[in-house]
Structures are given as structure tokens and as C-alpha cells.
Fold this protein.
Amino acid sequence: MAAVRQPTTRQRSRVGDKPARSSPTTTTTERTDPRVRRTRELLTAAFAELMSERGFAAVTVQDIAERAGINRATFYAHYDDKFALFDQMVRGLFRAELERRLPLAVRFDLDGLPLLVRVVLETLVQVQEHCGPRGPSAEPSIEALVQDELQRYIRAWLDAPTRRSRASAATAALVVSAGIVGAGVPWSRAAKRTPVDTLVREICDLLVPALS
């Protein structure tokens, strides 16, 4: 899998963002405090609106703060920069969709693979639409974020004690996630897509032998 390029300080400064710092960890207080949740919801909604209007590269932290009705200091109390907000937004959207439509199975079952592939494909379309127009060299990579979340999910799925395979769960999760996302990203961006059922079937035909 290709390494994900990290945005440079120069790239950030072009759009008026603050130099990168380490991403904040989510504490129990942050997960349960309704004020924190509300502020992050406002920031996410504002960012999504702005990206749909202007695209990722043209949006600054100041733009996001103004649209959300907060100040820059409050933004930086929650996120290091717009890249951190983008990361959380894409991961959160994808994770929520997986949990809603395909709760983590207690045991490994290949019968669930077609539904998993379908959820990933349809969520990729949703994420692409949610994030607005992006140039050919735009950062960060949506597919890298989605693949990382999918790999984590599949790894937990494959770690079930009833599974028997010569391949380790880590290797299988990497190969399967790369295969699904690798096929799904160009499909989700196509002006005219093949039927989702067709692509689901083709992907599963290729992946089942690797998971059996």
C-alpha cells in the first residue's frame, strides 16, 4: 500500500491554517460532554458546507470558525488544523455508516462479505459527495482514511477465534481493504457507474479465495 503523504507546513500556510501540531486524543470527557459534542458538530457541519461550496483547498480555519459561529481559539481547542477536522469527519462518517448497517460480527462469516463491500462502495460515494470538489493533488487522501478504517474493521472481524486461514488477520485485512477501496474509489468518482451489484459480485469473486 502506498504511503500516505502528509501535508507540509507550506501547504497549510497557503490556505491560512496554523502549523501542524500533534492531533488531540479523544478523552472520556470529550466524548460525553454535550458542549464539546455540540461544538464539534457545528464545526463539522460548517466545514462540510464550505467544502461543498469551495472545495477543500480554498477553505481556511477562519472560514470554518466564522461559519460555525465561534472564534479561532475555540477551533484550535478542538483541532490542530483543518486537516485534523477533515480526518475526523471522514473517519466518523465511514465508521458510523459501518456500525449502522453492518455491526461488527461476533464470528467470521463470509456470507457477510457482499454486504460489507456494498456498504464500503456506497459510503465512498457518500464521502465523495460530502467533501465537495477536490483538485487532482488535493490533500489529504479520502481513500487512505477510508482504507485505514476498513482495515481496522476487517482485522477485528478476521481475529474471530473460529476463523481458520494460512494468512494472518493483519495481512488478510490489508489485502482485502486495499482491494475493496482500490476498486471502489474510481467507481465512486465515475460520471457513469456500473451497477453496484455487479461490482460487489466481481470484488467478492476475487476476495473470497483469499479469505477462505
Q: What stands out?
A: Confidence is low (pLDDT under 50) at residues 1-28. Residues 34-54 form the longest helix (21 residues). Residues 12-18+27-80 form a domain with the Arc Repressor Mutant, subunit A fold (CATH 1.10.10.60). The chain has ten helices and no strands.
